[in-house]
From TrEMBL:
Signal peptide: 1-21
Similarity annotation: Belongs to the leucine-binding protein family.
Lineage: Bacteria, Bacillati, Bacillota, Clostridia, Eubacteriales
Protein name in the entry: Amino acid/amide ABC transporter substrate-binding protein, HAAT family (TC 3.A.1.4.-)
Keywords: Signal
One Pfam family recorded for the sequence: Peripla_BP_6
Domain of life: Bacteria
Domain Leucine-binding protein, first and last residues per copy: 36-370
Length: 408
C-alpha cells in the first residue's frame, strides 16, 4: 500500500513539474513566448547622415507603436530594440553590427541610413543567418549584385527614383529630349546613370549632360551650355548648400522652352528650393501628400510627440517597423530567419504611402511614388509639394539585377 502511495506521489510531482515548466517557458509551436524578440537598429545617429538616421529611428519606434497598437509586443512576445550608431562610417557600422548579432543576439537587423554602411554589413546578416531590413539606404546594388537571401528593403532604390523622373517626363511629353545636371562625384554619376537608362527605355532622348565639380558655386557656364542644347526637360540632381536653383531661375530656362524637374526629398532640401515654385517633380513622401489612415496617424502622433510634421525618413522608418511586425504576426512570433524569409517573400504590408510588397525575386519593396508640383503656402518656410498624381508602383518597378547564381 505504501509503495502505491509513493508511486502516485511521484507521478503527481513529475506531472506538476512538467506543467510548471511549460507555464514558465510559454512555448507555443516551438516558439518560447517568454523570450523577447530583439531587433537591432543600426543607423547614423551621428556623422554626415545623422538627420536621416534620427528621423528613421523616430519613425521605426512610432511604427512599432502603431503596428502593435501600443503594446510593443507581437504574437505574445515583447519587442526590444537595441540601437547602435554607425557614425556614418562603414568600418564602425560593421563593428556595431557584429556587436548586435554576436553579443546582443538580436533576431533581426534594421537600417542603416548610408548605402556604404549597408554594404559593410550585408554579408554579416548572411554569416549569422539573420534577416536585415534595409531602410533608407537606396543604392541599387544592395538588392542587386550584392544581394543575399537575408536582405529585404522596405524603402525605394535609386532605379525607382530614376523610373519616376522618366515617368514624369514622358507623361508630360512623349519622346522628350532631355539634359541632366549633376555633381561630378560618385553620388552624382550613380544617380544619373539609372535615370539615363530609364529615359531610353521610356522613349526619351538624352541630348546633353553636365557634371560640374561638387564644390561649384558658379553654375553659369554649365547652365548656358544646357540652354544652347535646347532640351525639352532638364533633370537636376544635387545635394548641398551650393545648389544651382537660384541661377537656373536667373538664366530663365523656361523662356527657352526648357522645363526643370527633380526629385524632392527632405524638408531641409526643400528649403533650398524656394526659387523652384511651380516645378513639376516627384517625391517618395511629403506629410500632406499621401491620403490614408496610416499617414494620418503618423502625422498626428509625430506632431504630438515632437511638435512638428514627420519628414521623409520618418515615413521610411515607420514602413520598416510595420513590415517586421506584419511578418512576425504571420509566423506566430517565430523570428527564425528561414521562417521570416519564407513569409516575407511576396508579403504585402502597410506604410504611410499605402500598400507595398516585397518582390519575391530580390526582396525589393514595390511601391508608389508621387508626381508633385511645388507650391507656395502662407506660413510655411519651404515650397510645399502638392499631389498631381500617384505614379503606379508597377510602372516604376526597378529591374531585377540579382546574380543568376545567387542562393535563393
Amino acid at each position: 500500500m505504501k509503495r502505491k502511495v509513493i508511486s502516485l506521489l511521484l507521478v503527481i510531482v513529475i506531472m506538476s513539474s512538467l506543467l510548471l515548466a511549460g507555464c514558465g517557458s510559454k512555448t507555443t509551436g516551438g516558439v518560447d513566448k517568454s523570450q523577447p524578440i530583439r531587433i537591432g537598429g543600426i543607423t547614423s545617429l551621428s556623422g554626415a547622415l545623422q538627420d536621416y538616421g534620427q528621423q528613421n529611428q523616430r519613425g521605426f519606434m512610432l511604427g512599432l507603436e502603431y503596428a502593435t497598437k501600443g503594446t510593443m509586443e507581437v504574437a505574445g512576445r515583447k519587442i526590444e530594440v537595441i540601437w547602435e550608431d554607425t557614425t556614418t562610417v562603414p568600418d564602425v557600422a560593421r563593428e556595431r553590427a557584429i556587436k548586435l548579432l554576436d553579443q546582443d543576439k538580436v533576431d533581426i537587423l534594421v537600417g542603416p541610413a548610408s548605402s556604404s554602411d549597408a554594404a559593410a554589413i550585408l554579408e554579416l546578416a548572411e554569416e549569422f543567418k539573420k534577416v536585415i531590413v534595409l531602410e533608407p539606404a537606396a543604392a541599387d546594388f544592395l538588392t542587386g549584385p550584392s544581394w543575399n537571401r537575408y536582405t529585404f528593403r522596405t524603402g525605394r532604390n535609386s532605379a525607382q527614383d530614376a523610373n519616376a523622373v522618366a515617368n514624369v517626363i514622358v507623361t508630360g511629353k512623349p519622346g522628350a529630349k532631355v539634359a541632366t545636371l549633376a555633381p561630378d562625384s560618385a553620388y552624382g554619376r550613380s544617380m544619373v546613370e539609372p535615370a539615363v537608362n530609364s529615359l531610353k527605355n521610356n522613349g526619351a532622348e538624352l541630348i546633353h549632360q553636365e557634371f560640374p565639380p561638387a564644390e561649384t558655386t558658379d553654375f553659369t557656364p554649365y547652365i548656358l551650355r544646357i540652354r544652347e542644347a535646347r532640351p525639352d526637360y532638364l533633370i537636376v540632381i544635387w545635394a548641398g548648400a551650393n545648389n544651382p536653383w537660384g541661377q537656373l531661375m536667373e538664366l530663365n530656362l523656361e523662356q527657352y522652352g526648357i522645363q526643370i524637374t527633380a526629385g524632392v526629398a527632405e524638408i531641409a532640401a526643400l528649403k533650398m528650393m524656394q526659387p523652384m515654385i511651380g516645378m513639376h517633380g516627384y517625391t517618395l513622401y511629403y506629410n500632406s501628400v499621401p491620403q490614408n489612415p496610416v499617414n494620418d496617424w503618423l502625422v498626428e502622433k509625430h506632431k504630438e510627440k515632437y511638435g512638428q510634421v514627420p519628414d521623409i525618413f520618418v515615413s521610411g522608418g515607420m514602413a520598416s517597423a510595420i513590415a517586421i511586425v506584419t511578418a512576425l504576426e504571420k509566423t506566430g512570433g517565430n523570428a527564425d530567419a528561414e521562417e521570416l524569409i519564407k513569409t516575407m517573400r511576396g508579403m504585402e504590408f502597410d506604410s504611410p504611402t499605402g500598400k507595398r510588397y516585397f518582390r519575391e525575386e530580390d526582396h525589393q519593396a514595390i511601391q508608389v511614388l508621387y508626381e508633385i508640383i511645388l507650391t507656395e503656402v502662407e506660413g510655411v518656410d519651404h515650397p510645399v509639394p502638392k499631389l498631381v498624381r500617384e505614379i503606379p508602383a508597377e510602372d516604376i518597378a526597378p529591374p531585377i539585377t540579382v546574380p543568376a547564381d545567387a542562393k535563393r
